[in-house]
């Protein structure tokens, strides 16, 4: 109960009851209770109170005798509290005091109210008339908690010590084996520590706060002993648990590091193994757009597989960076080495994938340009293979322009093909730099030969087309010249027809006198010269068309009709011109003769004595008048008049007026001859 006798020895109270008491259980209980105090407390001895008020004498005697075997050295006094109705003297005939030497301690029989003679009231509980506060159930519960904590903490300390010592000794394999076998304690250290802290807090609170009634509660020796035990166990637990947490942290870090290392090696082994092998088998660039697209699709599948491992690389890199930021110097070198190895392999593989993708893209562009150029050459060749049959020179010029544009487009396409091909060849030449020692000469030679073969083939096709374009250009230029000659010849015919029409419609005047008529005659000769030049120009053009047709091996479509038209118009113009010349010459003769007669002086009448002069003038005038009324008859039988009827009437009237003047002159000259004989 915590009570003490006058020698400061602990008081041990054994309450007996009416029921049968098991001596074995009582012996075990006494052993347990006597194991609680310290050795110092045990040295001061014990005072045992055997409460026999509710028990039989035989039981009491047995208990007292049992104390001899259980705690003979520690017991100094045994107080047997007798009931109010004392046992029968026969029963109590056994005198304990006589057996003091044999028992080893003094035994007294005492009533409960007289127990204070031997023990102070403050050290006795209320059951014996004392004032000591004691709650046995509370003590029992606290003791059970203490025992449980002691047991669990001791077991836990052994386990933690084994785990911690296993992590400090032995080889790495033994360390891992011991940690693996006993890595998790049988109880939760946090729970045990919490229980210990709660128990220690309760013990300390009872020590300093006192009991419920406000009466100071004397500390129990067992509790005073329990507090340092609990504190010592807690300190040991905290120390071992801290070491255990460090072991767990190291183990977790090592496990994490091993997992990272394992994953890193998985990524590295795959990238340097199957991943690199996939790239080693992909060297071709294809011989067409479809083949290059198929290779690109295959490469995308390879990239898809690599992407999964690159995702693992990103995750591992983040984990390694987190560990590096944690700042554990002992793992920095290993982590940096892993990170460097992983980054080198991944970046090298990513570079290879990117290089391969760029190579295939360049090959696809090269084949695309080659296909476009091939189609352009096919279109140009098809255009050259079709015979030219244009309708006129403008269509020929348009066709020639289209031909030149196509040839220029082919030149640009071939230049683009060379640029793409050279770029592709440059990339292929760098392909061996990441081949991991593999001989790629054969594969590269096939690719290089293919690229050069495509460019040479396109160059030859383009050269053939250029030669054909040169021939076609010459032919088309000749055809342009042919059409130009035919058009100019037709124009010459039109000009000659216009000259003929102008001759007939506007060249109608014959002049009012000989001088004017001579001027008209001179103008007419110049007019004829112009017509002659036009006719000669047309003939030359038609001769040129014949030569061009022979060169082009074709039949002119218009020269066969133009030449007869030209000759027909020229003959009509010649006939008309001759008629015009004849009329003008007749008019000159008429005007000259008439003007000579009309201008001669009358003092010389002998000059006009001959009648035939007047008759000749009259005949010429009549002949000229007759010609003005006669149409021009062409070789084909057609007829055409000069000018309009009014024009011809005006010219005829002028001639008649002059003929009248000549007739009057003639009459004047005749009058003197008639008057002379009469006179």
TrEMBL record:
InterPro entries: CRAL-TRIO_dom (IPR001251), Spectrin/alpha-actinin (IPR018159), Spectrin_SESTD1 (IPR056804). Keywords: Repeat. The keyword Repeat applies. The keyword Methyltransferase does not apply. Residues 1-136 form the CRAL-TRIO domain. One of its GO terms (molecular function) is phosphatidylinositol-3,5-bisphosphate binding. Pfam families: CRAL_TRIO_2, Spectrin_SESTD1. Belongs to the SOLO family. This is SESD1 protein. It comes from Eubucco bourcierii (red-headed barbet). The gene is Sestd1.
